[in-house]
Amino acid sequence: MRRRLYFVLPNIKSAHAIMNELLLDRIDEGHIHFHAEKEQLLGDLPKANAVEKSDVIYSAMAGFLFGAVFGLFGGILAYLVPWWFGEVSLTVIPYCMVLGAIACAAWAAAVATAAPSYRIKLHKKQMEDGNILMIVSVPLGRLQVVRQRLLKTHPEATYSGVWPAEHILFP
């Protein structure tokens, strides 16, 4: 299980330095992404993908749930009004639920790619000022170590949180 660490960096030089340090710390390049207001300034740094820049996952899950519910209602309606399709068995209900869930999940995910993530919205003002948002996905067991090392060696980096949220089981 991985967690995403969010850091706001002041400039591209700092972003390159932290990228090199994370690579030396054996964090794969595929788990380090950067996002800026003007992405052409990032150069050869890995850019954030659509999943990190939008709420695709949440939207797809919500669409899946709503689609299943509407599919249930549609299946019940198709069963209760048999003159639409002729003789209909009860198996039409799960088929409608599956079809509705898949269709709504795909539609909701496609729509969500156009809207920015709430995590990105939190940093919009900072990115407009020329800062760079770094998103690092690290294993749960190394979360504290990586965060403390980055904060210690790069005081210019502003820690901005972790996703999914840290869970403290015992006070």
TrEMBL record:
Spans traversing the lipid bilayer: 56-80, 92-115
Keywords: Membrane, Transmembrane, Transmembrane helix
Tagged with keyword Transmembrane helix: yes
Gene source species: Methylophilus rhizosphaerae
Protein name: Transmembrane protein
